[in-house]
Amino acid sequence: MAYLKGQGATEYLVLLAVVLIIALVSIALLGFFPGMASDAKITQSNSYWQGQARPFSIVEIRVNATGGQGTVILQNVEASGTYRLNQINVSSGTNNTQTYFGPGEKKSLLLTGLPTCSSAGGVFDYQVNISYTTPTNLNSLQYGSKNIIGKCI
């Protein structure tokens, strides 16, 4: 009888050790691949800015690794009315050109004054604010609930 009680306790400890080892290996693998974490953030950011942001979505953004410049492709995702873009602020970079966007229209804009990336392939993480005028002449601001995240070129 004494062997049965000891055997059950030993089996429990062995199974607990196996579960802990699997958990530690999983955590270590996630820690050893830091690129995967940034890729997941980029995917989430793109999903928000291309599908949920209104009235302007960011279809694409390209940031130069040096020089503090980039381009952004904006789209008016509203079905009716022409919106006037007054200003777009991406981190410290801006574009002050007043541009009109018809329903569904896309335009490429130059951004200047962006923080420089550490290198090509480095990850940028910028806050985005868009000032615009609605078709009924109301001035409004679009604040991104997620930052725009991507890789420098």
Description:
The chain has 153 residues and is α+β, with helices and mostly antiparallel strands. It folds into two domains: 1-31; 54-151, Immunoglobulin-like (Sandwich). It is built from two helices and ten strands. It has helices at 2-32, 34-51; strands at 56-63, 69-76, 83-90, 93-95, 99-101, 106-112, 123-126, 128-133, 139-143, 148-151. The strands form three sheets. Strands 3, 4, 5, 8 and 9 form a five-stranded antiparallel β-sheet that branches. Strand 1 (56-63) and strand 2 (69-76) form a beta hairpin. The termini are far apart.
What is the secondary structure topology, with strand pairs?
Blueprint: H1 2-32, H2 34-51, E1 56-63, E2 69-76, E3 83-90, E4 93-95, E5 99-101, E6 106-112, E7 123-126, E8 128-133, E9 139-143, E10 148-151
The gist of it:
The chain is of the alpha+beta class.
The CATH topology of the largest domain turns out to be: Immunoglobulin-like
* N-to-C SSE string, H for helix and E for strand: HHEEEEEEEEEE
* Top CATH class of the largest domain: Mainly Beta
* Mass-distribution shape: elongated
Question: Helix/strand/pairing class, anyone?
Answer: alpha+beta
Strand content: 35-45%
Major sheet summary line = 5 strands, antiparallel
> What number of structural domains do the residues give?
2
Radius of gyration, taken over Cα atoms and rounded to an integer in Å: 24 Å
Count all strands and give the number: 10
- Low-pLDDT runs: none
Task: Write down the overall mean pLDDT.
Answer: 86
Architecture of the largest domain in CATH? Sandwich
Instruction: Compute the number of helices.
Output: 2
Give the helix proportion (percent range). 25-40%
Q: Whole-Å distance between the termini? A: 70 Å
